[in-house]
From TrEMBL:
The keyword Hydrolase applies. GO terms for biological process: phosphatidylinositol phosphate biosynthetic process; sulfate assimilation. It comes from the Eukaryota. It catalyses: adenosine 3',5'-bisphosphate + H2O = AMP + phosphate; adenosine 2',5'-bisphosphate + H2O = AMP + phosphate; 3'-phosphoadenylyl sulfate + H2O = adenosine 5'-phosphosulfate + phosphate. Its EC number is 3.1.3.7. Pfam families: Inositol_P (PF00459). Keywords: Hydrolase, Magnesium, Metal-binding. GO terms for molecular function: 3'(2'),5'-bisphosphate nucleotidase activity; metal ion binding. Mg(2+) binds at residues 140, 203, 205-206, 355. This is 3'(2'),5'-bisphosphate nucleotidase. It is an enzyme of class 3 (hydrolase). InterPro entries: DPNP (IPR006239), Inositol_monoP_metal-BS (IPR020583), Inositol_monoP_superfamily (IPR051090), Inositol_monophosphatase-like (IPR000760), Inositol_monophosphatase_CS (IPR020550). CDD domains: PAP_phosphatase.
C-alpha cells in the first residue's frame, strides 16, 4: 500500500493542478483499496469484507465528492448531439433491416452497416465539435472488413447513410464525405485508452443482437479523463419513455426513444431522443428485494441466467427476470425501473470498456453502485478491456451489501457443484 500511495502522489503531482491534488489523492487512495491484484478466485476486497455497507457508500460517494459540476458541459452537449445523430441513423437502418445487411466478423458477431455508420458519425461529430491534437477514441469497430473488395457495396451504403444523416441534421455545411473519409473516421476509434489524458469510449451499437431482432439496443458514448468516467450518454431508440414494466401497452408503445446523459457531480438526466421532456432521474430507493425486479442480458450466452436466478432467490426477489439487450439496462435502472442488474459472464470472457463506461456513469450519477462480483470498483483506466472479478453487479447503495452476500454465496455454490 505504501508503494501504491507514493505512486499516486507522484502521479497527482505531475498531472493535476495543485488545487485538485488533495482531492485526486484521496479519490485514488480510496479506489486503490478496492483493487487488490486481480485474482481468479472470488473474494471480497478486504474493506468490502469488513464492512460492505461502508465500502458501498464510499464507492458511490467517490464519484460525487469531487466537485466537477461546472466541468465537461461542452463535452456532454456534444456527446448528446453525436449519440442522437447516430440514433437517427440506426433507426433508419433498423426500419429497413434486411438479412443481407448482416456481415460476419472473425469473431462471428453480427455487424451491420448501422454499427459502422454510427461509429463514423460519432467520430465525425466529436472531432468536428471538439477539435484537439490529442483526440482519442476507443471504439468497438474497425474498418478491416470494410476495406475488402467484397465489401465495396456495403461501404457505399454506409457512406450514403452517413451523408444523409448529416444532411438531415443541417448543422454541417460541408461537401459529402467520401468513402475514404468514412473509413478514416471509423479507424479513429483504434485508441488504446489508458490512465492518462482524455479518451472517448464508444459502442456504436451496443446490443447488436437486440438491434437485429428489432429489440433494445443503445448508442453508448463516454469520456474518460485521467482514467475516470466523467461524461456518459446512452441513446436507447427503442426504450419506452414510461417505465419498462408499465402494464398499459398503449402507453409503452406510444412513446419510445430515450437519451440518458450524465456528467460527473451533476446527476443523470433523461429526455426523449427528439429533445423534449428532460427530467432528472434516480435509481430505485427500495430497501426490500421482495418488491424489486432485476435485469439481465437477453442472451444467455452473455450472462449466466441460472446463477442470476439463484442470486435472485437468495435475495427474495419475487418478480421474474427482465431480460433486455444492451446498456439500455443501465438506463432503465437509473430511472428506477428495476433495482438490480446482474451480469455474470461465462468463464473466460473479458468485458470491454465500451460495454459499460457510459452505463456506469449513468447509473452512479443517479445514485447507484456498480462493482464487480467481488465488490471491487470498475477500473476503466487499463486500456480497452475491463478486468473484473467474475461479473458485474449493479444496485442502490442500501441493497449492495445484501446483493454482494447473495452473489458470493451463489458463486461459492456453483463452484462447489462444479468440483463434485
Ligand atoms: N460471451 C459473452 N459474454 C458476455 N458478453 C458478451 C459475450 N459476447 C459478446 N458480449 C458482449 O455483450 C454485449 C451485449 O450485451 P447485452 O447482453 O447486455 O446485450 C455485446 O456488445 P455488442 O452488441 O456491442 O457487440 C458484446 O460486447
Ligand atoms: Mg459487438
Ligand atoms: Mg457492446
Ligand atoms: Mg457494439
Amino acid at each position: 500500500m505504501a508503494t501504491s500511495y507514493s505512486v499516486v502522489r507522484a502521479f497527482s503531482k505531475r498531472y493535476t493542478p495543485s488545487f485538485l491534488s488533495p482531492l485526486l489523492l484521496s479519490f485514488n487512495v480510496c479506489n486503490l483499496s478496492f483493487f487488490p491484484s486481480s485474482s481468479s478466485s472470488v473474494a471480497l476486497s478486504s474493506e468490502a469484507k469488513k464492512s460492505p455497507a461502508r465500502a458501498c457508500s464510499s464507492l458511490s460517494a467517490s464519484a460525487t465528492t469531487m466537485s466537477f459540476s461546472s466541468s465537461y458541459e461542452k463535452e456532454l452537449s456534444v456527446a448528446k448531439k453525436a449519440a442522437s445523430l447516430a440514433a437517427k441513423l440506426c433507426q433508419a437502418v433498423q426500419f429497413e433491416l434486411l438479412q443481407s445487411d448482416v456481415q460476419s466478423k472473425l469473431d462471428k458477431s453480427p455487424v451491420t452497416i448501422a454499427d459502422y455508420g454510427s461509429q463514423a458519425l460519432v467520430s465525425f461529430v466529436l472531432e468536428r465539435e471538439l477539435p484537439s491534437e490529442s483526440f482519442s477514441l476507443v471504439a468497438e469497430e474497425d474498418s478491416g472488413d470494410l476495406r475488402k473488395d467484397s465489401a465495396r457495396e456495403t461501404l457505399e451504403r454506409i457512406t450514403k447513410l452517413v451523408n444523409e444523416t448529416i444532411a438531415l441534421d443541417g448543422s454541417y455545411v460541408i461537401p459529402p464525405l467520401t468513402a475514404e473519409d468514412v473509413l478514416a473516421a471509423i479507424d479513429r476509434g483504434k485508441s488504446e485508452g489508458g490512465p492518462y489524458g482524455r479518451h472517448w469510449v464508444l459502442d456504436p451499437i451496443d446490443g447488436t443482437k437486440g438491434f437485429l431482432r428489432g429489440d433494445q439496443y443503445a448508442i453508448a458514448l463516454a469520456l474518460l479523463d485521467e482514467g475516470r468516467v466523467v461524461v456518459g450518454v446512452l441513446g436507447c431508440p427503442n426504450l419506452p419513455l414510461v417505465p419498462i414494466n408499465t402494464v398499459d401497452k398503449l402507453a409503452v408503445d406510444s412513446a419510445r426513444g430515450c437519451l440518458f446523459s450524465a456528467r460527473i457531480g451533476a446527476g443523470t438526466h433523461m429526455e426523449s431522443l427528439d429533445g423534449s421532456q428532460t427530467q432528472k432521474v434516480h435509481v430505485s430507493a427500495t430497501e426490500n428485494p421482495a418488491e424489486a425486479s432485476f435485469f439481465e442480458s437477453f442472451e444467455a450466452a452473455h450472462s449466466m441466467h441460472d446463477l442470476s436466478k439463484n442470486i435472485a432467490q437468495k435475495l427474495g426477489v419475487q418478480a421474474p427476470p427482465v431480460r433486455i439487450d444492451s446498456q439500455a439496462k443501465y438506463g432503465a435502472l437509473s430511472r428506477g425501473d428495476g433495482a438490480f442488474y446482474l451480469r455474470i459472464a461465462h468463464r473466460g470472457y473479458r468485458e470491454k470498456i465500451w460495454d459499460h463506461a457510459a452505463g456506469f456513469i449513468v447509473v452512479t450519477e443517479a445514485g447507484g453502485v456498480v462493482t464487480d462480483a467481488a465488490g471491487n470498483a470498475l477500473d476503466f483506466s487499463r486500456g480497452r478491456y475491463l478486468d473484473v472479478d467474475t461479473g458485474i453487479i449493479v444496485t442502490n447503495a442500501k441493497l449492495m451489501p445484501l446483493l454482494l452476500n447473495a452473489v458470493q454465496a451463489a458463486i461459492r455454490e456453483s463452484q462447489s457443484a462444479a468440483s463434485l
